[in-house]
Design brief:
Chain A has 55 residues and is mainly α. Chain A has one domain. Chain A has two helices and no strands. The mean pLDDT of chain A is 90. Helices cover 49% and strands 6% of the residues of chain B. Chain B contains 20 helices and six strands. The longest helix of chain B has 17 residues. The radius of gyration of chain B is 20 Å and the shape is globular. The N and C termini of chain B lie far apart (52 Å). The mean pLDDT of chain B is 96. The chains are: A mainly alpha (55), B mainly alpha (374). At the A-B interface, helix 1 of A face helix 8 and helix 10 of B.
């Protein structure tokens, strides 16, 4: 499902790196923190998207 | 437009209360609680609040079968469109199909994104960045992804349009900046988003220097023909449906088609048939292709039935019932192939067919033409 959504994002000219889907169980607190931190850093690096800038 | 203005604009006070609309309505047959006649009556009786809160407002397929038969010539679909605008303003909305994904894509296109959706076109044939003829592709690149599981392969149709245009010596403009035509937003009760999308499209087409715009999708064609001038006045563009163009090519001998498609039947899309009044063109082409094996369904031309859902909203078990009946009707003609001329009809009918044990193929007319090219 997420691969399809990423394809749609590409068609819309939105960097599909901005979307991720990961499965983390409730027993994997450290992994959850790691994923969220790395994804947040990635988004910060990518900067503002073209969205939200009204046409 | 509030209800009173809608009543005046569409002169629903001429209603004779004859009930032909409800008798003709494919939805009323399945959901007896839905009645165009009662909706008109409630609007006249000043029961507006009740009407605008009624979820049935979104059950209408806007297929125009009622308007086709109304002796008082009341344009119920357009009246319905106005009621939906007002209902939306008051905060009610339809049940979006596919989790509202398609509406999201449409609305995002008014938010400053720059789409990248024409790669396929460069692979399909010769296309240009500017020129006389603009090919309005519509939502096909998105449908191609979203409905891949159904096996409908939407972009094949667009690729074939380019192939046929190239065969006629035309290198059409296709643009990444082309937005959704706005059809669904308009019928979903969101005219302000429709306007933004339409303005963007007119800009893109004019900037490309195009004088004529070719449509394969009936919704885009009808919306440009009917609603764009209503909102923006004379467009100064020639709006052409692809099948009219193909017919001219056949007449001029520029397109040679072989026959041998086997037995086929044809499903009239609402926007192409009852709304744009294009009934015979596709049939002429089909008669050439099928060489005497073209069979009409019982309900054809102005009596055709809708593919069961419209505007990506309120897809229900009733929609499925309409689709199943239509497919049985197609099969009953003895046809092996049900030919459609609208990407959404293809999607909706394929969705129903995938869950049925029926030996029938669904094919877009454009693809059938491309496959018959010599």
């Amino acid at each position: 499902m997420v691969s399809m959504t990423r394809e749609l994002l590409s068609l819309m000219g939105i960097d599909n790196e901005r979307l991720a889907l990961e499965w983390v169980s409730s027993a994997e607190g450290a992994r959850f923190a790691e994923i969220v931190t790395s994804f947040t850093n990635k988004i910060k690096q990518l900067g503002k998207s073209s969205l939200g800038v009204a046409a | 437009m509030n209800i009173e203005e809608a009543v005046k604009t569409y002169q629903t006070y001429y209603c004779l209360d004859c009930g032909v609309c409800t008798g003709s309505c494919p939805v009323s047959r399945i959901l007896p609680s839905f009645s165009p006649r009662l909706i008109v009556e409630k609007a006249l009786l000043d029961l507006g609040d009740e009407l605008l809160k009624d979820p049935e407002l979104w059950s209408c397929l806007t297929c125009s079968r009622c308007f086709e038969r109304c002796p008082a010539k009341i344009n119920f679909p357009e009246f319905m469109r106005c009621l939906r605008e007002e209902a939306t303003r008051r905060g009610t909305k339809p049940v979006y199909s596919h989790h509202g994904m398609l509406q999201t894509i449409m609305e995002l296109q008014t938010r400053g994104i720059h789409q990248k959706k024409t790669e396929w076109a460069k692979e399909a044939g010769k296309v240009a960045a500017s020129g006389d003829t603009f090919f309005f592709v519509g939502c096909m690149p998105y449908f191609d992804v979203i409905f891949r599981d159904l096996g409908v392969d939407s972009l094949t149709v667009s690729r074939n349009v380019i192939k046929i245009l190239n065969a006629a010596g035309i290198e059409p403009v296709v643009s990444d900046e082309e937005a959704c035509c706005g059809h669904d937003m308009l019928w979903n009760g969101k005219p302000e988003i429709f306007k933004k999308l339409a303005e963007k499209n007119l800009d893109v087409i004019r900037q490309a220097g195009a004088k004529r715009v070719i449509f394969n999708c009936p919704e885009g064609y009808y919306t440009f023909r009917h609603h764009y001038p209503e909102f923006f006045g004379e467009l100064g563009l020639e709006i052409i449906h692809f099948y009219d163009f193909v017919q001219d090519m056949i007449k001029q001998g520029a397109l040679q088609l072989s026959n041998g498609t086997g037995a086929v039947t044809y499903h009239d899309p609402c926007r192409l048939g009852r709304m744009a009044k294009i009934y015979e063109g596709p049939r002429h082409i089909l008669q050439t292709l099928a060489d005497g094996h073209f069979h009409e369904m019982e309900r054809n031309r102005e009596n055709a039935v809708c593919c069961g859902t419209s505007g990506w909203a309120n897809c229900s078990s009733g929609s499925k019932q309409i689709q199943v009946e239509r497919l049985k009707e197609a099969k009953h003609t003895g046809a092996q192939t049900l030919v459609t001329a609208c990407p959404k009809c293809t999607i909706h009918l394929s969705c129903a067919l995938n869950n049925m044990d029926m030996d029938l193929q669904i094919k877009d007319l454009t693809t059938l033409i491309a496959e018959s090219m010599d």
